[in-house]
Write a structure and sequence with these properties.
There is one protein chain. By secondary structure, the chain is an alpha/beta fold. The chain has 8 helices and 12 strands. The protein has a 5-stranded parallel β-sheet with strand order 2-1-3-4-5, with helices on both faces. Strands 6-7-8-9 form a 4-stranded antiparallel β-sheet, covered by helices on one side. It has a 3-stranded antiparallel β-sheet with strand order 10-12-11. It starts with a strand and ends with a strand. It binds calcium ion (CA).
Length: 229
């Protein structure tokens, strides 16, 4: 049974989520502030963390950054009070895997949890097998290791940036609209939040060019979307 840690200071939301995790076959545990949250991550080693952004003691953003700095790659779904905060969180680049804004529907939340867990499993289950490497000029994407390099220089990407790059590389030359990318990479209906794609593309380009991408592998097709060269 997958263990899911809910770090949430609002008792009503916490109880509602815990209840629904249980009825959906998960082992739900909870922490009500940031310090307790970090302690629980260390002690319980959860399979996924639902992390509220605004928390007493320590913010969700700080928790996320601390865990990633420790090398802890437990999947994190960041929960924000407003849609605008999602942009802020992404701009801060804390390394969360997905974002959801309150108020959210339970079905949507469960779908996100399932999708993040599934993607995470796909990448960790295949370790040890022969590595699949996607190569576009001097860009190398090692699917199993989740490693990206440009001319041999490793590029640090968040989970979602990696998934986006991988998807474009797997479908090289094909143009995708922002909506298509949201559906195919994020796996859920993010209607009205296509800026999410643009923000991720911008970060990806920046990181790739810092590593020496002179070709600009990701091309913008005006009025349509993006494609991998
Ligand atoms: Ca809160």
């Amino acid at each position: 049974m997958k263990k899911i840690l809910v770090i949430e200071d609002e008792p009503n939301i916490r109880e509602l989520v815990l209840y629904n995790l249980k009825t959906n076959g998960y082992d739900g545990i909870a922490a009500e502030d940031g310090i307790m949250g970090i302690t629980m991550v260390h002690r319980e080693n959860p399979d996924l963390i639902l992390l509220d952004l605004m928390l007493p003691e320590k913010s969700g953003y700080e928790i996320c950054r601390e865990l990633r700095a420790e090398g802890d790659d437990t999947p994190i779904i960041m929960v924000t009070a407003k849609t605008e905060e999602i942009d802020k969180v992404m701009g801060l680049e804390c390394g969360a895997d997905d974002y959801i804004s309150k108020p959210f529907g339970i079905r949507e939340l469960m779908a996100r949890i399932k999708a993040v867990l599934r993607r995470y499993e796909v990448t960790s289950d295949t370790e040890g097998d022969k590595d699949t490497v996607l190569a576009v000029a001097d860009l190398n994407i090692n699917v199993e290791r989740h490693e990206v390099s440009v001319g041999g220089i490793l590029v640090e990407l968040t989970f979602k940036e990696f998934e986006l790059l991988r998807y474009l590389a797997e479908n090289r030359g094909r143009v995708f609209t922002r909506d298509q990318l949201l559906n195919n990479v994020w796996g859920i209906d993010y209607a009205g939040e296509t800026r999410t794609v643009d923000v991720h593309i911008r970060h990806l380009r920046q990181k790739l060019s810092e590593a020496g991408d002179n070709e600009q592998f990701i091309e913008t097709i005006r009025g349509k979307g993006y494609k991998m060269k």
